[in-house]
Structure formats: C-alpha cells, structure tokens
Amino acid sequence: MGLKGFQKGNPYGGRNKKNITWKVDENGCWICTSHYLNKGYPIHQVNGNKTYVSHTMFKLYKGDILDNMHICHTCDNPNCINPDHLFLGTNTDNYLDKINKNRHAKGEKCNNKLSEKDVSEIREKCKTISQRKVAKEYNISQQTISRLITGQTWKHLKTEGK
Predict the structure, then answer these.
(1) Widest CA span of the chain, in angstroms?
(2) Which CATH architecture has domain 11-100?
(3) Among 71, 101, 73, 69, which Cα is nearest to 85's?
(4) CA distance linking residue 59 with residue 46, whole number of Å
(5) Domain span(s) for CATH 3.90.75 in the chain
(6) What is the pTM of this model?
(7) pLDDT in tens, 68-84
(8) Dihedral sign, CA of 17, 18, 19, 22?
C-alpha cells in the first residue's frame, strides 16, 4: 500500500523521490516501508531538509503543525504513519502520555549508579544501619537513600509495608 497521487518530483517523495509506502499491521498502524529509520522514526527529505514521515503525513491529512507542538502517536509505534494515530501535543502532553501509559524510564534505565539489587540491599540495610552510613557505602547522598526508602524513587520496586 502507498500514498496515492505521489508523483516523481513531489517534494514529499523522500530520498531519491521515493513514494511513501507502508504495510498495515494488526493494530491498524501504517508501518512505513519506504524510508530509513532514525531512532525508530521513518525520515525523509522535503525540499532538501530531513523531516519525519509522520510529520509529512500529518500535514497532508490533518493540516499544519503549530509552533512548539509535537506529533504524538496514540499507538506508541514510532514507525507508524497512519494519520488517524497521530495527534498534536505539547512537550508536556507527550511526556504525560508516556507516563500515563507507563512507557517512561524507571530504575536502572534512568539511574546508572544503582541497580535494583542495590536498592533492595539498601532498603534492607537501612533497617539496622543509619541512612548516612549506607549512603557513604554506596557513594550516594542520604537524601537519595531517604527517597528510595520512602518510595519516592524506585516506585516500581515494592517497599515493605506498602
């Protein structure tokens, strides 16, 4: 399947003026098959400038992209270019969408100093040793220890009694 009406020389044709083509998956996503990916998002050239294919599809089917707005995916599939799965949102909207769908980095993915094993050990040690001593042992601050003990951080790891 591909975008009808795209002719050679069309500014949306991408590298070597390729037509935008896709296949439809079981979720109704239009998976771009014609352009290379940049961090999972298909990209092409429009009038000599690199741009995301999803931006082009949004403009073609829904209209202009307002300043300071992002193209967000309801399907959370960066390779999807289905205009029905694309919506405009602010950076905050995009971030909150990620949080609400539990796609944000947690634990070791966003904290390279501690592992999940370290957090479990720290929580256990703090039952008998002061937070300051444990913090020194792990070369982190006492405030960091306090936040992981109270569950303010590492929320995805269960804390005893919660």
Answers:
(1) 72
(2) Alpha-Beta Complex (3.90)
(3) 73
(4) 12
(5) 11-100
(6) 0.57
(7) 899 999 998 999 999 99
(8) negative
